[in-house]
Amino acid sequence: GGDAVDVAAGHGKEGVVVPPWPALNGLTTEQCAPITAFPTVMLACHPDSTGPDRGKSLAWALTHQLHAANVPTYNLWMANPAEDELQEWIGLVAEASVVVLMLSTRFFDSAGCVEQVKAAIRQRKPLLPIYFEQVDISGRFLGYDPTSVKTANFIRSQIGNALPPLDQGFFHAAAAGEVEQAQWNRNVETLIARIREIDSGYMSASNALYSGYDAMMGVSPDYASL
User: Fold this and answer.
1) Dihedral Cα 145, 93, 116, 174, nearest 10 deg
2) What is the CA radius of gyration of the chain?
3) Which of 155, 89, 94 is nearest to 123 (CA)?
4) More confident residue, 214 or 144
5) Residue 102 pLDDT grade (very low, low, confident, very high; cuts 50, 70, 90)
6) Which among 171, 206, 214, 208 has a CA at the least distance from the CA of 62?
7) DSSP-derived 3-state class of residue 74
8) Do the Cβ atoms of 28 and 85 come closer than 8 Å?
9) Residue 219: count of CB within 10 angstroms of its CB
10) Beta carbons of 31 and 77 less than 8 angstroms apart
């Protein structure tokens, strides 16, 4: 994971951009200054998750709370404006310990989001899915070519790791894009604990995860081909 760093310093001060995306009740959603260490966590999120630009709001809210817990975190909109956002994200994923998938109905309709997932798989990163809407990942939801089928099978195998479990509702625990703050905070605390658990035993967590995938597929797949 990333080196320890006081990533919370400077929030609300220098480098802050007043956000054009929607506010979320009780949560900090402004853009923050870039982190100065490689990230422990990469966030993958559709910008319009739960509503126009609300994915950005959710990603920044989660970024702020992870930073406040000294967990260096990177989301797509932290890229230098002169750089390609997606390429910047893909270039950093190798340095992280875990990728958090912020899932919504539009996530897998986005070629960019799918590329983020594939990049995480290529780097054998543990995936932590958190749900903001019901997502149908039954069948061949990414397509029918071998690469899409293989990637879809892997993603589907991770459903049991959803946080909170799917039968306990969505991560933000509210409808119509709103946030139930107490439930959100509890879920963030649980997420941080899980991230730290993975980060402390990153190699064993990664090996266990992908060994299970290899066994499920009956082969050792060429991750670099994804």
Assistant:
1) 130
2) 17
3) 94
4) 144
5) very high
6) 171
7) strand
8) no
9) 9
10) yes
